Amino acid sequence: MTRISNDKEDYFTYDSAVPSAFTRFVVESSGQLKQYVWGRNFTSWTLFWTRPTQQCQVYAFCGVASICNLQDEPLCVCIDGFGPKHQRDWDLGDHSGGCVRKTPLNCTNNAVGEVDKFRTLPNMQYPSNPESWPSGNLQECESLCLANCSCDAFAYDNGCLIWRRDHMFNLQQLLEAERVGKDIHVRVASSEIPSIEVGSGFLTLSAAGLLLLVILWRRSNNASAAAAADDKYEPRDDNSLSFFNYKELKTATKNFSEKLGEGGFGAVYKGTLLNSTLIAVKQLKSLQQSEKQFMAEVKTIGTIQHINLVRLRGFSVESSKRFLVYEYMPNGSLESLLFHQTTATTLSWRFRYQIAAGSARGLAYLHEDCRDCIIHCDIKPDNILLDSEYNPKVADLGLAKIFGREFSRVLTTMRGTRGYLAPEWISGEAITPKADVFSYGMLLCEIISGRRNTDSSEVDSYFPFELASAVSRGGDVASLLDDKLEGNADMEEVGRACRVACWCIQDNEKDRPTMRQVVQILDGVCEVNTPAVPRFLERYAEGSSAATMNYLQGMSSSKE
């Protein structure tokens, strides 16, 4: 990438690293920058990359006083008490004009009793650019906002935040299941929230009656839950899937309060069933499948059982909500152990090699031993989970099948995924199990080095290039090993892993081994000769540093 900047113009030029593919960048009317690719056998330009990844992240996309909600159509809705400023534009899908109040505020009449009120919007992402005012609690913050006619909304979050008139941009409704948002209180005229006047005697009787109903309901609910607990939550011997309703998962996860992680498919939460079994609950987002299609695909995935694959325990489907319930992995992901641990807890070579071999077995099972070949399409350290004994289990298997046509979009919007994509994802060739082999090779590079493939800004320090160069010339593989291991490793295993990694990332998929062959090589059952340096790495080494590293960090980086 080269930047041209002078008195008359300012622009970037890009050099394509894949000669058989063309690419173009477009700033669309949506406000998003999109990269399109045209490769061999393409019939049209294909969307490959988008920034911002979500429409709601485009600044002021919905205009002022409007809520953006990715789960609804249309995306933009006016806050209650507001209406479109330009109705015709709004009807045509242009929401940038935002919304205006239906009823003017009573700020100037507060002294005679017409006090403005606040409508609470729960689980929201705050609008941009709030002002911070000194306040000790929620009530003080509300009073400060009421006393200032220019204050349109406030929130109390370890301090008083306020938004002035016409400054409420980028207000976003978050998923109910995530519950990671905050309450914001929007100022409206008192007439927008009519009061209900009732006699004190009636109010007392109503409150007493309501309390009695709540007590009876809780007793009944607790008794039913206790009676059904063993039957509903007991692990089944036949490995069949369990169906959970949304309320059960909400209870198990304590209202989705402990998030384990989040990727392009959705967020994952820790949960505990009534029999104390730990689970991981993944909420799938942006899924367009019908309930019938979803259940059919999930049941197919549920039949897949292997020691190196994360077990699917059950699922939930209610209206637009889709959840998958997995066994819980107490040692988290390989990504966290490789890149976020201290020296005192460095993952030993013995465990690294065990993880590499076990992950390969899980993939070989998906590719060759299932009734239908399953291509994972998203192999990376985040999707290698570890049980209590550090045995690896491949996660998210089958999600490419569930997401169908939307999967390529999910891949290119997930943080880190592009660091492991095979060249055929860009060139437009058919995706086969060998795409997983390439991703596995990139994963193996990081297992060996203990660092992300593109921690360096120089081509010569790009670890896959270092590894391939050292292997091809028969160099000392000990120098490739993670420094934190201080040389404590079986060098025969290290050399074997380096050769396998280099074979896996060859340009032509026909030159890559199958995952079954990878398992055999790592197990020492068969030998493998010295591979050549992949051609795409040679081209990078010969090219300009700026253009090369720009592309490496686009296709082969674990940090978008």
Automatic annotation (TrEMBL):
Gene3D superfamilies: Phosphorylase Kinase, domain 1, Transferase(Phosphotransferase) domain 1. It comes from the Eukaryota. Coiled coil: none annotated. The keyword Disulfide bond applies. Keywords: ATP-binding, Disulfide bond, Kinase, Membrane, Nucleotide-binding, Signal, Transferase, Transmembrane, Transmembrane helix. One of its GO terms (biological process) is recognition of pollen. Residues 254-533 form the Protein kinase domain. PANTHER family: OS07G0415500 PROTEIN, RECEPTOR-LIKE SERINE_THREONINE-PROTEIN KINASE. This is Uncharacterized protein. It comes from Linum tenue. The lineage of its organism: Eukaryota, Viridiplantae, Streptophyta, Embryophyta, Tracheophyta.
